[in-house]
TrEMBL record:
Keywords: Ribonucleoprotein, Ribosomal protein. It comes from the Bacteria. Signal peptide: none annotated. The keyword Ribosomal protein applies. Belongs to the bacterial ribosomal protein bL33 family. This is Large ribosomal subunit protein bL33. It comes from Denitrobacterium detoxificans. GO terms for molecular function: structural constituent of ribosome. Transmembrane segments: none annotated.
Length: 49
C-alpha cells in the first residue's frame, strides 16, 4: 500500500515536497537529498508525520 508522505528540509525545517512510499518495503522514515528553494542548495530532506 502506497501512502503520501511529506518531506521537510533539515536546515530550514520547511516542508517542501510530497511523495509516495510503499510502507511494506520501507517501514522506516525516508531521507532524500533534494533542492530547497529557501536555502538555495541541495539539502537532506526527511519524512515528517
Amino acid at each position: 500500500m502506497r501512502t503520501l508522505v511529506t518531506l521537510a528540509c533539515t536546515e530550514c525545517k520547511r516542508r517542501n515536497y510530497t511523495t509516495k512510499k510503499n510502507k511494506q518495503t520501507t517501514p522506516d522514515r525516508i531521507e532524500l537529498k533534494k533542492y530547497c528553494k529557501w536555502c538555495g542548495h541541495h539539502t537532506l530532506h526527511k519524512e515528517t508525520r
